Backbone:
RNA sequence: GCCGGAGUGGCGGAAUUGGUAGACGCAAGGGACUUAAAAUCCCUCGUUCCAAAAGAGCGUGCCGGUUCAAAUCCGGCCUCCGGCACCA
């Protein structure tokens, strides 16, 4: 009796009430002790690298994180149950400005602040029950990590992919640092919203433009990415194919080099414009003050201003002399910094021409005018500048920017734009008047930041030797701890004598270190490679000589999950780094992310959750109140992952109720389930209700599996679980067979629930007498035969309108179905004496009877 | 302005290739249990006509088209969201 009692106690320790706190902590401890999420290289298994964007350790996890990581965790757990060797790591994007702000505000060192946050947030992540292999944890502010940032920098320097130049840079006065183009949003700082100004500084750059073409071509391989993200990348890279044309300047040596994508409009040039920062501008303009007024409004979109230089350029195609202007809207950074202006066919030039009363000359007319007639071709005999276009010139109220037929264009007159372009480019190249070129909007990536809390750039400045890279053996260049962070004037590193003073590695003389640190996007551009190694020191140098290393086992990432806000920034930089790393010989893959899932925002009261709007939901509160399983389940159920998720307190209660119902029914029937030893085989005669549940279980396995496989539609998968639960609730088992079916349904429900809400699944799995862990269960297969309905509902339509429904067995032949439909009592009444024109039978679905009046 | 995406009940959302529109959940209404409430369980729940039921009509942003059949395909609009924006 005693023996029985002990056994009894051991197996059945389910409490009557679902206590999320208790069981979640219990299983989290169990998983940690067992090291169940540790991953090792295993060439016998198919690998799956599942990665969520790592967080900035701001202090606490918010709902956006919960959603992001819940999505990733379901995928990782699902793939693990499907037998994949899953790599699912987590880390910290730990460098960045908030740590410095905290240092100023609270007089705490950025390092201390950051590590404290990491500590706390790690506890929070574990409390959510996420299946990370923490042995691979990456913390980017750790010298063991950023040493390799510096190593990459040196390698890129060697290959000419890192360089230093003076340039106008985006400067955020509030952050007192430089920003990359991608980090400027609506002329404001991406981080603090201050208006960004232009400042001339000497900076370090990564030559991302070297890979512009490959990054663009690679876009076509990103089959597993959302189309819009690929498109955003393509637009950002912005390839423009065109031609450079040289315009001689009258009374001066040298030529004005312009870039255009519309050489078909070359005969319509009536003036030229150059950027105020163009090297030519100071030669052409003697009045420096006037030039400065243009410079002051450089790049401003509200008005176009220009200044006539007094010089004329010669159109190499027709010999026309046209005036040369300095104009604020011409960008130095794109093309050659100089343009030919064709006001008739470019809206910007048109506006400028109207303002400064410059001539407009039409050289393209629509292929068919508004009445659909072909255009009247001007006779070439009428001569240059007096062609048929002239009458149109005065009428124009805006530029005609479309393609069409060339008029007034010398030997090219009468050709279509696209044909004319080819001919003109060929002509220009043959005569040496210019050449075909490709331009990209993508600029090189400026990585210097005048901040403290970042990776020191491993460079030394020596008066004698100039710019000297820190020798590899001296890496890492450690960020000094004893600095004062005031937030005022320049980098705090300038104040650290100890850091600043160094001996030149070449000549041994006194020299000084670079005080700028790297943009933190450098850190996140390769962290996914670092995860491929187990914890501890890594040596990428030795990896260079290891073909088919761990990196090649794991890379590329099979599924990457994060917010769309990184569509260009982080994702583009990471693609660039991956190509650099590949070319260093460290990696075979050329693209880092096979599949990308961009999850939507978490919304409350119609707006993104933010402290300033006061609409944040604290995950801590949620977990205390309902537990991690409910929190996870809600964020997966309320919307498909790629869509925004509208927060709903009531919705949370809904899924909590669902888990409670599962708990309740398992608790109530635990002995019956435990004691059910009956084996299900197809032969035994089931009551129809038991058969119904058996069928529903197989249907649910199928549904949940396909919903997960099909674009991770967790919301409908969970709806499927709820349906199965509803069916279990209404099933009333009586016989041994019934209980076997009941047990079968419950066990499958728990296994299917496990990736979504793992704690409750574990507890109930154990509670019905199974060995932990449910995580080690195989994902179930469904039996297509068992999932099939024995009767299906056949819809009968008349003229496309639903008129009747009958139950039929599947597999009834079409003409039989047709007969049954026509014999249906209701159908007979409606059809009456009317003529049946046609009957369409859709197998297993419906019959549509088309009748006349 | 250009390029994307989306418009479905009171709400979040479902409908895999054109084939029963509204799965699942929330809210609401009614009922059971209870001295009562909470919790739980059961029923109803797009809309109009009808006292109600039966039944019929209408209904996936708007207008038109293709088709036996359209939330789904095509054309034209409207609205909202996102990205880019003097890139020559």
Residues:
């Amino acid at each position: 009796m005693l023996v029985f009692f002990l056994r009894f106690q051991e197996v059945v320790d389910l409490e009557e009430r679902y206590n999320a706190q208790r069981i979640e902590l219990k299983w989290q401890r169990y998983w940690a002790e067992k090291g169940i999420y540790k991953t090792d290289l295993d060439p016998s298994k198919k690998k799956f690298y599942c990665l969520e964007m790592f967080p900035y350790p701001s202090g606490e996890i918010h709902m956006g994180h919960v959603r992001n990581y819940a999505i990733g965790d379901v995928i990782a757990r699902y793939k693990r149950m499907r037998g994949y060797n899953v790599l699912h790591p987590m880390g910290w994007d730990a460098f960045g400005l908030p740590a410095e702000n905290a240092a100023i505000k609270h007089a705490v060192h950025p390092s201390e602040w950051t590590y404290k946050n990491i500590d706390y947030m790690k506890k929070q992540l574990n409390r959510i029950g996420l299946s990370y292999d923490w042995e691979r944890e990456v913390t980017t502010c750790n010298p063991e990590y950023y040493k390799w940032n510096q190593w990459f920098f040196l390698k890129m320097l060697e290959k000419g992919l890192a360089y230093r130049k003076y340039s106008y840079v985006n400067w955020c006065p509030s952050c007192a640092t430089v920003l990359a183009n991608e980090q400027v949003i609506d002329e404001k700082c991406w981080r603090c919203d201050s208006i960004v100004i232009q400042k001339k500084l000497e900076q370090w750059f990564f030559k991302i433009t070297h890979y512009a073409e490959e990054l663009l071509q690679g876009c076509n391989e990103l089959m597993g990415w959302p189309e819009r993200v690929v498109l955003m990348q393509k637009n950002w890279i912005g390839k423009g194919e065109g031609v450079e044309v040289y315009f001689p300047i009258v009374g001066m040596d040298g030529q004005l080099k312009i870039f255009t994508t519309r050489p078909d409009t070359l005969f319509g040039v009536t003036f030229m414009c150059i950027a105020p920062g163009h090297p030519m501008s100071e030669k052409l303009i003697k009045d420096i003050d006037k030039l400065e007024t243009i410079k002051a409004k450089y790049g401003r979109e509200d008005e176009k201003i220009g200044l006539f230089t007094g010089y004329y350029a010669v159109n190499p195609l027709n010999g026309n002399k046209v005036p040369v202007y300095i104009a604020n809207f011409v960008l130095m950074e794109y093309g050659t910094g100089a343009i030919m202006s064709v006001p008739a066919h470019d809206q910007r030039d048109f506006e400028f021409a109207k303002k400064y009363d410059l001539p407009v000359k039409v050289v393209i007319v629509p292929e068919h005018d508004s009445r659909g007639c072909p255009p009247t071709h001007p006779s070439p005999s009428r001569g240059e500048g007096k062609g048929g276009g002239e009458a149109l010139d005065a009428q124009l109220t805006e530029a005609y920017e479309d393609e069409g037929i060339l008029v007034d264009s010398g030997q090219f007159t009468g050709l279509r734009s696209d044909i004319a372009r080819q001919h003109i480019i060929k002509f220009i190249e043959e005569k040496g008047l210019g050449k075909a070129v490709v331009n990209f909007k993508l600029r090189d990536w400026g990585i210097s930041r005048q901040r403290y809390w970042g990776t020191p750039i491993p460079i030394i400045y020596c008066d004698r030797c100039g710019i000297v890279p820190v020798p590899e053996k001296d890496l890492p260049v450690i960020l000094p701890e004893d600095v004062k962070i005031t937030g005022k004037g320049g980098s705090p590193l300038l104040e650290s004598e100890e850091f600043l003073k160094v001996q030149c590695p070449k000549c041994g003389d006194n020299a000084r270190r670079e005080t700028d640190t790297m943009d933190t996007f450098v850190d996140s551009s390769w962290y996914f490679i670092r995860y491929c190694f187990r914890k501890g020191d890594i040596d990428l140098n030795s990896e260079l000589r290891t073909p088919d290393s761990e990196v090649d086992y794991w890379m590329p990432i099979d599924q990457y999950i994060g917010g769309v806000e990184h569509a260009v920034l982080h994702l583009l930089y990471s693609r660039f780094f991956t190509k650099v790393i590949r070319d260093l010989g460290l990696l075979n893959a050329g693209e880092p992310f096979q599949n990308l899932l961009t999850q939507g925002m978490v919304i409350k009261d119609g707006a993104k959750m933010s402290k300033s709007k006061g609409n944040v939901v604290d995950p801590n509160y949620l977990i205390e109140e309902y537990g991690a399983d409910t929190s996870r389940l809600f964020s997966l159920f309320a919307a498909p992952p790629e869509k925004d998720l509208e927060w709903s307190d009531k919705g949370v209660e809904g899924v909590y109720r669902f888990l409670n119902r599962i708990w309740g029914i398992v608790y109530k029937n635990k002995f019956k389930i435990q004691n059910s030893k009956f084996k299900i085989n197809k032969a035994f005669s089931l009551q129809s209700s038991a058969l119904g549940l058996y069928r529903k279980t197989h249907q649910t396995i199928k549904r949940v599996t396909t919903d997960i496989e099909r674009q991770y539609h967790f919301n409908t998968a969970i709806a499927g679980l709820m349906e199965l639960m509803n069916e279990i609730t209404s099933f009333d088992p009586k016989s041994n067979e019934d209980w076997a079916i009941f047990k079968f349904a419950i066990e499958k429900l728990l296994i299917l629930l496990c990736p979504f809400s793992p704690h409750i699944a574990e507890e109930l799995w154990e509670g019905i007498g199974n060995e932990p862990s449910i995580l080690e269960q195989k994902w179930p297969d469904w039996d297509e035969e068992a999932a099939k309905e024995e009767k299906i509902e056949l819809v009968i339509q008349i003229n496309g309108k639903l008129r009747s429904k009958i139950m039929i067995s599947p597999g009834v032949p079409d003409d039989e179905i047709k007969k049954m439909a026509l014999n249906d009592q209701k159908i007979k009444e409606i059809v009456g004496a009317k003529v049946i024109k046609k009957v369409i039978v859709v197998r297993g679905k419906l019959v549509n009877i088309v009748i006349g009046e």
